Amino acid sequence: MMNMALQTTLRGHLVHNEPMGKHCSWRTGGAAEIYFEPADKQDLILFLTQTANDVPVTWIGLGSNLLVRDGGLKGIVISTLNKLNDLRLLDNGNVYAESGVTCAKLARFCQKHNLDGADFLAGIPGTVGGALAMNAGAFGFETWQFVKSVEIVNRLGHLESRESSEFKVSYRSVELAHSEWFSASVFCFPVKTDDEESNIKPLLAKRNASQPIGLPSCGSVFKNPQGDHAARLIEAAGLKGFCIGGACISTKHANFIINENNASATDIEALITEIQHQVKQKFNIELNTEVRIMGDKL
Ligand SMILES: Cc1cc2nc3c(=O)[nH]c(=O)nc-3n(C[C@H](O)[C@H](O)[C@H](O)COP(=O)(O)OP(=O)(O)OC[C@H]3O[C@@H](n4cnc5c(N)ncnc54)[C@H](O)[C@@H]3O)c2cc1C
After folding, report:
1. How far is the CA of 111 from the centre of ligand 1 (A)?
2. Same domain for 75 and 95?
3. What is the Å distance from ligand 1's center to 188 Cα?
4. CA of 65 to the centre of ligand 1 (A)
5. How far, in Å, CA of 1 to CA of 232, rounded?
6. Pocket of ligand 1, candidates 26, 64, 224: which has the most ligand atoms within 8 Å of its Cβ, to mutate?
7. How far apart are CA 69 and CA 59, in angstroms?
8. Strand partners for 127
């Protein structure tokens, strides 16, 4: 077990051997050696400057797209959820949001300030940091469409602002250097015209009708292959409702895996592998995971 020798008192919350199931929407997973929630950005920077550079760091937001294997995560996990929480309208009408702000809060903030385009974020159960890292999207919109610039923090605790044009962005992915993370973003949403209604309610209703909301899942497990839908392929392979251990393919939406009965991360990963195998065998199509799988096997 790693030991943290920190010189200055941190104001955040630091624990050893923290079960990651508490911080992931699948409600399962191994433990983090060190788990840290900074009190704010200054506290985060202090923490990064005080920890040895060779200790691996993993950032998480709401854990709504994460599978942490049962053997756990080495090094440090940093969670900024509701901690890096600054959200404000800038003089030029752009929106500044720190990485721990939830997507739902950002969507409501934009609605309140008569800004258009952010409604799709209302139903994505993640943080701004996670939405940036994943280029989260729904209903034809993607996060990076609205990013003007981002604030990056590196392993040494240095902050830097970068324009969105400096990033290579694609479907559910952004290229970010190793040991750099998003601490905040400036978004540019267009101003609504007078007669435009908010779409938040109808979009949430649409989700509720088609997805198993409220059950422990990570949303869509696989990226949609070019010109097709992962859910359609999984259903056509006859896998809806199929389970391994406590992990089951949703009968409502076949691209969702539900932790129905105390599934381990091993159960979920085995089910992911089985789906990939069956879809490859039946349709000769490779399904790639959207979900980020990390940590050690038991
Ligand atoms: C019911 C349900 C519905 C969903 N619907 C959608 C949807 O419609 N569209 C969609 O795109 N996704 C959807 N998701 C998946 C998930 O909500 C998104 O991917 C979300 O953006 C993840 O944000 P998070 O804060 O939970 O990130 P986490 O799951 O905590 O992390 C995801 C990845 O981002 C990295 N990361 C997190 N924060 C930072 C940071 N500050 N800097 C750098 N890297 C960071 C992590 O290391 C990890 O690799 C859904 C999930 C659920 C459970």
Report:
1. 22
2. no
3. 21
4. 5
5. 44
6. 64
7. 16
8. 102
Cβ–Cβ < 8 Å for 287, 249: no
Domain termination residue (choose one: 79, 98, 121): 79
Is the minimum distance from the CB of 63 to ligand 1 under 6 angstroms?
yes
For ligand 1, mutation pick of 41, 48, 121, 134 (most atoms within 8 Å of CB):
134
274 CB neighbour count, 10 Å cutoff: 14
138 CA → ligand 1 middle, Å: 12
Q: Is the CB of 75 under 6 A from ligand 1?
A: no
Give this prediction's pTM.
0.96
DSSP 8-class letter at 293: E
The tens-digit pLDDT sequence of the chain (298 residues) is 565 666 568 999 999 999 999 999 999 999 999 999 999 999 999 999 999 999 999 999 999 999 999 999 999 999 999 899 999 999 999 999 999 999 999 999 999 999 999 999 999 999 999 999 999 999 999 999 999 999 999 999 999 999 999 999 999 999 999 999 999 999 999 999 877 778 899 999 999 999 999 999 999 999 999 999 999 999 999 999 999 999 999 999 999 999 999 999 999 999 999 999 999 999 999 999 999 999 999 9
114: in domain: yes
Q: Whose CA is closest to 172, among 242, 244, 233, 124?
A: 124
Determine, yes or no, domain membership for 251.
yes
Nearest CA to ligand 1 atom 21: 131
Domain that holds residue 93: 87-187
